[in-house]
């Protein structure tokens, strides 16, 4: 059983404060959908509205064509994994998983079979008689997932489930979640503020900011064709470089005049670009050191971040703006060095002052 | 430097020792009256009549305690106190838990207004309602009954206040997880949250039991028949005639006998009792 | 799963037809059933008697029933009654005797016993132990200590050939005697309140002071005491409220005597209402006590609220 979830024009208000404003979105059956956004953007609220833990002030939510936004949470046939896990502290692991099944009156042998199967899948069979207080963070996390699995719900909801784990465990659990996802065929909605979790887990990502959806798309769409300056800033690490530019045209493609006066030919069609106060966006990976080849501009290195496989150079251009460039892992550049930078015009983005974005036509530029 | 921040800041100095000696001395002085009472209770009544200083030497006897078993009404009073304090404690726990859950977790019309009114009730001293309560109970013919002794305690807002605070401190995600697990509101209360409030139940239970056990006002005006005396009232009633000192040792043994259970309870539940009493004072 | 899905879709259909918004956070009357049992007792045994007492204080009333409306007559009678005025004075005197003593001794004990050793824990237990006794046993103990001829005090004084002060019969001393017994009985609470305040003083402050070479006395005077100033005020107010309600000790140790010098307000109320059965007068006296305690309780409320804002 899986869920096709249809959210239409949903709004949420607390008194005069609007936290969600007329959102619409479709989540396909068996899809792994991630709600990504900064804290306070409304992503958790939206998830809790699907769960039935928050009321829907306007609009509708349907699962498989059936309206569910007026059903109590228990009858929506969904399971949720909480950020704090919310395990019942006084019940054993087995009872934690069985509680919901007993509440709907399933026969005891069905319950124990499902609990055993989930425990096997999550490798927590040896923990079944323990209480949550005796478990490590990672084990609690598994029990919380197990409690969701045994219900065989139409949809799984995850509310930042990895944020209470330490860094190493978070990476491992992320991989396990991806594997689990292949075994449990069900719709999954995952809320996070961590773009790496979103990129690695999602079929599609919903980027949310300030009560609204900024963009819905596959991870690569979000990364390479951000729909707004917000998305471009929020997704990707290090964050995208932005330079204020003046625009001119050549063969229908925009040509950007950088702050220091140099021109950069882009692959973005000039036609349709509107507004004022344009800026050019370019990721660090498209800014390399110019080794004798055509340098776009020059700058002075102020900060060096060595990440092992690559090196990030925070470079101040003559007129004052900072551009992050990428160099090889064993870069020999030192702080204070004057470097020549080559900006890859084909991998640039343009934004106007309102945050609207334009991209090149091609897809393969990454 | 590291020992500075991890170890004791103030070492055990001469000053510390002097303070320790002083507080021990004061504690001994404080305990002296209790020791005096116990010593008296172990002396023969007639011997005390002739020479009080005989307290300080043998022979000691447990005859007074044996006499309690044979003659005293103390057992009836203890039974009354157990019924009254026990009944009040159980009912207070039930009512306060239900109301605490309701105020902390459920939404119903006028909830906040009602809660504020209940909190205001904390400021009402017993004396401001006693006379009217007494009249009400006279009309209902509740005086000299167990329910007459128990019921007034059920109105005290402290338990509701304490349990509401406690329920509020439990993460709300537990309720939500249980809601998604198809549990009813009552089931959430009973199966999920109530087991987590056991420390608060202990605190409230002990506080309620202790205050009821030691209450000297309501039982004095409501349980006026000798067979309805609580232990506190009963022991008070024996005091009026001890100037004659005939049964001084016997009286003292009765007092020790009456005080011992609560002191023993205190030894076992010291931490909870201290928390309960201080918590009730600060609110 | 089959069951769950079935029931789920059945009620989905039902919900869709009635279009009722089933919101988990919506106010519902049926949720009030959880608070209703308590509220029943709260209203019948606290709210109603509270207003009934006020109403009674404006009537002539005795054991047989409520008589005619007399306005503020009962209050006028109280203020003309020398014994009532005296009992108010006695109560203030008692508060004056006990509250500073309880606060100061409690503070000193807390400072002395605020350490993690076993001996400190044992001594804390000893000092708190008297608080769990009932007033009956406390007064029994202290009468036996104070009583002439064969009391503990008389015996100790006797060793030195001296006569013990007559705390139970000398008009100048009875209130002091009652105050001594009360301090002995109640010292545990202020001590514990101070201890918990002391434990909340952040350790880092002491560490910083130690690094600054502050002496023990300077640390006490400039760090410890200022940090618990608010608790000190709170203890004073709590004790004022508690000690204002003096009753059992006075009734059992001296019966308010000799010549009413140790009669507190509550004993006056008790006698007016339950020995003379002048319920209107008793109710009026209890309203006066209520107002006095209310003033102290309001002060407590504002102080704890301010603490809440800052903490």
TrEMBL record, chain A:
InterPro entries listed in its UniProt record: AAA+_ATPase, ABC_transporter-like_ATP-bd, ABC_transporter-like_CS, ABC_transpr_MalK-like, ABC_transpr_MalK/UgpC-like, Mo/tungstate-bd_C_term_dom, NA-bd_OB-fold, P-loop_NTPase
Transport listed as a keyword: yes
MF GO annotations: ABC-type transporter activity; ATP binding; ATP hydrolysis activity
Gene Ontology CC, one term: ATP-binding cassette (ABC) transporter complex, substrate-binding subunit-containing
Organism, scientific name: Sinorhizobium glycinis
Protein name as annotated: ABC transporter ATP-binding protein
Alphabetic keyword roster: ATP-binding, Nucleotide-binding, Transport
CDD domains named in the record: ABC_MalK_N (cd03301)
ABC transporter domain mapped to chain residues: 5-235
Membrane topology field: Peripheral membrane protein
PROSITE patterns: ABC_TRANSPORTER_1, ABC_TRANSPORTER_2
GO BP field: carbohydrate transport
Family that this chain belongs to: Belongs to the ABC transporter superfamily.
Main location: membrane
Bilayer-crossing regions: none
Subcellular location: Cell inner membrane
Automatic annotation (TrEMBL), chain B:
Alphabetized UniProt keyword annotations: Cell inner membrane, Cell membrane, Membrane, Transmembrane, Transmembrane helix, Transport
Subunit composition and interactions: The complex is composed of two ATP-binding proteins (UgpC), two transmembrane proteins (UgpA and UgpE) and a solute-binding protein (UgpB).
Residues spanning the membrane: 20-42, 77-101, 113-134, 146-167, 188-210, 248-269
UniProt subcellular location: Cell inner membrane; Cell membrane
Pfam families: BPD_transp_1
Boundaries of every ABC transmembrane type-1 domain copy: 78-269
Name listed for the protein in its UniProt record: sn-glycerol-3-phosphate transport system permease protein UgpE
Domain of life of the source: Bacteria
TrEMBL record, chain C:
Principal cellular location given in the protein's record: membrane
TM spans (from-to): 32-52, 92-113, 125-153, 173-195, 231-248, 279-303
Residue span(s) of domain ABC transmembrane type-1: 88-300
PROSITE patterns in alphabetical order: ABC_TM1 (PS50928)
Keyword Transmembrane recorded: yes
Membrane topology: Multi-pass membrane protein
GO cellular component, one term: plasma membrane
Record's keyword terms, sorted: Cell membrane, Membrane, Transmembrane, Transmembrane helix, Transport
Localization terms from the record: Cell membrane
Any single biological process term in GO: transmembrane transport
PANTHER family xref list: ABC TRANSPORTER PERMEASE PROTEIN, INNER MEMBRANE ABC TRANSPORTER PERMEASE PROTEIN YCJO
Family statement: Belongs to the binding-protein-dependent transport system permease family.
Name of the protein described by the UniProt record: ABC transporter permease
Native source organism of the sequence: Sinorhizobium glycinis
């Amino acid at each position: 059983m899986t869920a096709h979830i249809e959210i239409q024009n949903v709004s949420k208000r607390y008194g005069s404060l609007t936290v969600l404003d007329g959102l619409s979105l479709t989540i396909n059956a068996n899809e792994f959908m991630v709600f990504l956004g900064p804290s306070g953007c409304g992503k958790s609220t939206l998830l809790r509205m699907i769960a039935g833990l928050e009321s829907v002030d306007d609009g509708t939510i349907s699962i498989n064509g059936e309206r569910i936004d007026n059903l109590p949470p228990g009858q929506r046939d969904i399971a949720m994994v909480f950020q704090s896990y919310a395990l019942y502290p006084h019940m054993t692991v087995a009872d934690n998983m069985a509680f919901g099944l007993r509440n709907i009156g399933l026969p005891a042998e069905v319950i124990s079979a499902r609990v055993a199967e989930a425990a096997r899948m999550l490798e927590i069979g040896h923990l079944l008689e323990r209480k949550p207080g005796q478990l490590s963070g990672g084990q609690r996390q598994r029990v919380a997932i197990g409690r969701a699995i045994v219900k065989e719900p139409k949809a799984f909801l995850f509310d930042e489930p990895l944020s209470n784990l330490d860094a190493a465990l978070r990476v491992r659990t992320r991989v396990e979640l991806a594997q689990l996802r292949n075994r449990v065929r069900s719709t999954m909605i995952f809320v996070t503020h961590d773009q790496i979790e979103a990129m690695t887990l999602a079929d599609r990502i919903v980027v949310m900011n300030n009560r609204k959806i900024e963009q819905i798309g596959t991870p690569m769409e979000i990364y390479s064709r951000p729909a707004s300056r917000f998305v471009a800033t929020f997704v990707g690490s290090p964050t995208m470089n932005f330079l204020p530019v003046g625009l001119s045209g050549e063969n229908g493609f925009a040509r950007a005049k950088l702050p220091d006066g140099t021109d950069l030919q882009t692959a973005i069609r000039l036609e349709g670009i509107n507004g004022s106060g344009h800026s050019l966006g370019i990721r660090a990976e498209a800014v390399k050191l110019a080794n004798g080849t055509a340098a776009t501009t020059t700058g002075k290195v102020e900060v060096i971040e060595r990440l092992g496989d690559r090196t990030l150079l925070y470079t101040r251009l003559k007129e004052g703006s900072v551009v992050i460039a990428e160099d090889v892992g064993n870069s020999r550049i030192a702080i204070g060095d004057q470097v020549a930078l080559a900006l890859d015009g084909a991998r640039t983005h343009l934004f106007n002052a309102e945050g609207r974005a334009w991209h090149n036509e091609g897809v393969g530029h990454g | 430097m590291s020992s500075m921040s991890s170890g004791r800041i103030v070492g055990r100095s001469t000053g510390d020792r002097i303070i320790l000696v002083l507080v021990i001395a004061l504690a001994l002085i404080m305990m002296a009256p209790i020791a005096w009472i116990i010593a008296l209770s172990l002396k023969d009544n007639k011997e005390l009549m002739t020479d009080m200083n005989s307290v300080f030497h043998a022979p000691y006897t447990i005859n007074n305690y044996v006499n309690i078993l044979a003659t005293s009404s103390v057992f009836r009073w203890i039974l009354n106190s157990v019924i009254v304090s026990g009944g009040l404690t159980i009912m207070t726990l039930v009512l306060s838990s239900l109301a605490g859950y309701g105020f902390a977790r459920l939404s119903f019309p006028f909830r906040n207004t009602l809660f504020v009114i209940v909190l205001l009730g904390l400021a009402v001293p017993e004396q401001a309602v006693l006379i009217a309560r007494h009249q009400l109970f006279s009309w209902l013919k509740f005086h000299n009954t167990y329910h007459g002794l128990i019921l007034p305690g059920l109105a005290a807002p402290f338990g509701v206040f304490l349990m509401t605070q406690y329920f509020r401190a439990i993460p709300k995600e537990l309720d939500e997880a249980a809601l998604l697990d198809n549990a009813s509101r009552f089931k959430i209360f009973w199966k999920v949250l109530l087991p987590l409030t056991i420390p608060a139940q202990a605190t409230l239970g002990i506080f309620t039991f202790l205050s009821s056990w030691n209450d000297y006002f309501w039982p004095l005006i409501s349980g006026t028949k000798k067979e309805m005396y609580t232990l506190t009232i009963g022991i008070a009633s024996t005091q009026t005639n001890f100037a004659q000192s005939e049964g001084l040792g016997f009286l003292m043994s009765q007092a020790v006998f009456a005080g011992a259970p609560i002191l023993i309870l205190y030894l076992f539940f010291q931490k909870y009792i201290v928390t309960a009493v201080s918590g009730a004072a600060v609110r | 799963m089959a069951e769950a899905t079935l029931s789920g879709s059945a009620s989905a259909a039902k919900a869709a037809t009635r279009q009722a918004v089933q919101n988990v956070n919506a106010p519902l009357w049926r949720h009030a059933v959880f608070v209703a049992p308590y509220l029943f007792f709260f209203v019948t045994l606290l709210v109603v008697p509270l207003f009934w007492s006020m109403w009674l204080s404006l009537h002539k009333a005795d054991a047989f029933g409520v008589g005619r409306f007399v306005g503020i007559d009962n209050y006028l009678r109280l203020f003309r009654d020398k014994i009532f005025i005296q009992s108010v004075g006695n109560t203030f005197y008692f508060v004056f005797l006990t509250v500073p003593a309880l606060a100061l001794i409690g503070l000193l004990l807390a400072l002395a016993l605020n350490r993690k050793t076993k001996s400190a824990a044992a001594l804390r237990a000893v000092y708190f132990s008297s608080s769990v006794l009932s007033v009956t046993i406390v007064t029994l103990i202290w009468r036996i200590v104070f009583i002439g001829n064969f009391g503990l005090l008389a015996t100790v004084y006797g060793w030195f050939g001296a006569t013990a002060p007559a705390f139970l019969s000398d008009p100048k001393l009875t209130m002091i005697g009652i105050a001594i017994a009360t301090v002995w009985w109640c010292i545990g609470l202020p001590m514990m309140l101070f201890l918990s305040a002391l434990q909340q003083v952040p350790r880092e402050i002491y560490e910083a002071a130690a690094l600054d070479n502050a002496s023990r006395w300077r640390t006490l005077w400039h760090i410890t005491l200022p940090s618990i100033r608010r608790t000190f005020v709170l203890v004073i107010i709590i004790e004022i409220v508690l000690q204002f309600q003096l009753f059992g000790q006075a009734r059992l140790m001296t019966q308010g005597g000799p010549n009413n010098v140790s009669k507190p307000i509550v004993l006056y109320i008790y006698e007016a209402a339950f020995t003379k059965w002048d319920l209107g007068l008793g109710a009026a006296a209890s309203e006066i006590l209520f107002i006095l305690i209310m003033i102290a309780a309001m002060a407590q409320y504002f102080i704890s609220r301010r603490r809440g804002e800052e903490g």
